[in-house]
Amino acid sequence: MGRSEGVEVAKTRTRELRWTYSRVVPGASGRVLVVDDNKVIRQLIKVNLELEGFEVVTANDGAECLDIVHRVCPDVITLDVVMPRLDGFGTAAQLRADPRTRDLPLAIVSACTQYEVEAGIEAGVDAFLAKPFEPAELVRVVRRLVERKDRRERKGAPAGRGRG
User: Fold this and answer.
1) Residue 22 pLDDT level (bands cut at 50, 70, 90)
2) Distance between CA atoms of 140 and 152, rounded to whole angstroms?
3) What does the pLDDT read at residue 29?
4) What mean pLDDT comes out for the span 51-74?
5) DSSP states of 103-152
6) N or C: more exposed end of the chain, with fewer CB within 10 A?
7) Is the CA virtual torsion 28, 48, 20, 88 positive or negative?
8) Which of these, 66, 126, 60, lies nearest to 90 by C-alpha position?
9) Claim: this prediction has a pTM higher than 0.90
10) DSSP β-bridge partners for residue 77
11) 59 and 37 in contact (C-beta within 8 Å)?
12) Which three-class secondary structure state does DSSP give residue 34?
């Protein structure tokens, strides 16, 4: 079940248990669920995406992501790999197993070692951004995933990449 077609790898590393929601951005470019156990990294990603017109909701780990994803209805999810309770790969696998989130674009924001990229592809991840990342690269990856989702929805196809 390899998903290597269309996978992006770009170039960053990184803990509190509380939901944080951004302000609603009128005319937002899309809604992004940012999942990272490091508060500083969550805030860094959030601020950079909000500056570019995205609405951002954050979660502290994969378990919290799965708790809120259906209420938040994001266009894209960014996932750290190493997190307490449920890591990024486990989160991606559970999102892919749920028919409601199966095609939701997922981006790993982590060290992006060869192992992480291979495991991420196997879990169904669409893009990779290595820490430390350039804010412009983060925005580019997220924007591309939102645009890809929008194009597929307009064509009546699933939002994520094809299976298999």
Assistant:
1) very low
2) 18
3) 82
4) 96
5) T--EEEEE---HHHHHHHHHHT--EEEESS--HHHHHHHHHHHHHHHHHH
6) C
7) positive
8) 66
9) no
10) 33, 106
11) no
12) strand
